[in-house]
Amino acid sequence: MKKTSSILTVTLLVLNVILNPIITITSVYAEEEGGVEVEYSSESYDDSTDQVYVEEPPVEQQPPQESVQDDSGAGTGESYEDNGEGETIPEEDTESSEPDESEESDESEESEESEESEESEEEELYPVTGISFEGVVNNNIRTGSTIHVPVRVTNSEAALEDAVLRYTISRDYIVPYDSLSSYFPNNGGSVEAYYSGDQLIVDYSLETLSEEYNQLLTLALKTKDDGTMPNGATISASAEVIQNGNTIAQSGNVNYQFVTRQPHFSTNVTYPSETGTSEDDDEGPARETTIAYSFYFGDEGGGNGSGQSAVTNLTVTTEVPESLNFDASQNEGWSYNDGTRTATYTVVPGDDIYSNGYQLPSPFNVTSKGCEY
Fold first, then answer.
1. Lowest mean pLDDT, pick from 112-121, 169-178, 201-210, 287-296
2. C-alpha R_g of the chain
3. Fold for the domain defined by 128-259
């Protein structure tokens, strides 16, 4: 039995010596362009202990390995490296995994600018339209005059299409024109005029107002000059810009005040029974007094109207003092009220009363009480 064991031991030693150079372990690593790197280790057998020893070669400092692109990943931007076990694994893109703060900031700014630009493009602009009276002369206007209603219309930001300038005027003392163009003698354009209740409506087509529209537009109105317009008459006017029946801008109201030419009286007193015109002189107090009445119309108001009222009659009333007597025989056309001691004269003047004035045809005569002729 011992002999057999010795033979087996010898046999193993012989085999170890023979096979030792052959028994090596190699590892093949895929390298760029088909190159390989061979790394080996050797094993030895210790017959005394029945153990196998592996001897590793010394580790040399290897230069940084270049990433190798697999043909199957060509064009994909992936890189691979050896994992030490003969396999290639994708190399992590450390640059892409760590975002560049400056790039993120630039992208954020560009994104914000793009959003602002889109918001600006999407924001819709609306017209900003204004209207106001300008240079209005509306006081102390003579009746029958042509009045002017100037308004300034402005527009900005965006165009306003189908715009209409509308005037609303109290119609009582307005004379309508035969030609619609007479309402805007200084501005051409389409005009429409019509009545609505006690108002005159005048529409002037503005068509499209541009973003920089700024225009003064003046409406002309002829007032009645037939004597029916009284002193103190008023005409009210307002203006607005409308679009498709909707008010876009509106002014306030302006009132035009009218006056008529007013009569002014004058008197001329004489003393027929005296050599002079004094009431009291060397010959004693005057025994008879004569008063002549006349009047004329002033030139009140401005404008191109006549300022005339319809004068149908003229009445003069005077009070007789207690110290004087009224004698009807000496006062043709005069009437006298003894209870109120007032004398009255009424006359229908001619058509030229405003141009030539008027003097009563019969003067007023009174005498002192107790006078004897």
1. 112-121
2. 61
3. Immunoglobulin-like (2.60.40)
Distances (CA, A) of 5 to 8, 13, 253, 271: 5, 13, 137, 194
Element at 173 (helix H, strand E): none
C-alpha closest to that of 84 among 69, 65, 99: 65
Note the residue count of the chain.
Answer: 373
Specify the residue for token string 């025994």: 287
Amino acid (1-letter code) at residue 58: P
Q: Which residues of 277-305 are buried (b: 16+ CB within 10 A; e: fewer)?
A: eeeeeeeeebbbbbbebebbbeeebebeb
Paired strand residues for 337: 342
| Confidence (pLDDT) at 67 | 46
Q: Which residue stretches of 319-371 are H helix?
A: 353-356
Cβ atoms of 251 and 133 within 8 Å: the answer is yes
State residue 28's pLDDT score: 41
Q: How far apart are CA 331 and CA 334, in angstroms?
A: 6
Separation between Cα atoms, residue 162 and residue 242, nearest integer Å: 8
How many Cβ atoms from other residues are within 10 Å of residue 142's Cβ?
22
Predicted TM-score of the model (pTM)? 0.60
CA gap 277, 272 in Å, rounded: 8
Identify the weakest region by mean pLDDT among 22-31, 79-88, 165-174, 249-258: 22-31
> What is the pLDDT confidence band of residue 314, given thresholds at 50, 70 and 90?
confident
The DSSP letter of residue 107 is H
Each domain of the chain, given as residue ranges in start order, spans: 1-56, 128-259, 263-368
DSSP string covering 294-312: EEEE---SBSSS-------
Per-residue tokens: 159: 């165009």
Cα 155 from Cα 94, distance rounded (Å): 61
Cα–Cα distance for residue pair 241/130, rounded to 1 Å: 8
CA distance 83 to 80: 9
CA atoms of 282 and 2, how far apart (whole Å): 205
Residue at token pair 């308004």: 151
Q: Which of 176, 178, 171 lies closest to 229 in space, CA to CA? A: 171
The structure tokens listed for 224 are 């009645």
Phi, psi of 62 (to 5 degrees): -95, 140
Distance CA 133, CA 187 (A): 16
